[in-house]
Amino acid sequence: MREIKQIKDQIEQNRQHLRRLVERHGMHDDKVLKQSMLLDELINKYTRLIEKY
Q1: Signal peptide: which range, if any (predicted)?
Q2: What is the H or E stretch that residue 36 is in?
């Protein structure tokens, strides 16, 4: 369960970072795309983890 909390925290931090990148660089910047992909990976990891419980 601790791992789930850690991933949720990481997701929230990465979501905030993505929002800041979009504000600074716009939706089509490579930095935004990379951050979005990282966030997707974390969300997928979280989903796989909670499916185990």
Answers
A1: none
A2: helix 30-52
Q: How far apart are CA 25 and CA 8, in angstroms?
A: 25
Mean pLDDT score, 24-52: 97
- Rounded average pLDDT over 19-44: 98
Question: For residue 47, what pLDDT is reported?
Answer: 97
Torsion of CA 24, 33, 12, 19, to 10 degrees: 20
* pTM score of the predicted model: 0.91
CB atoms within 10 A of CB 43: 14
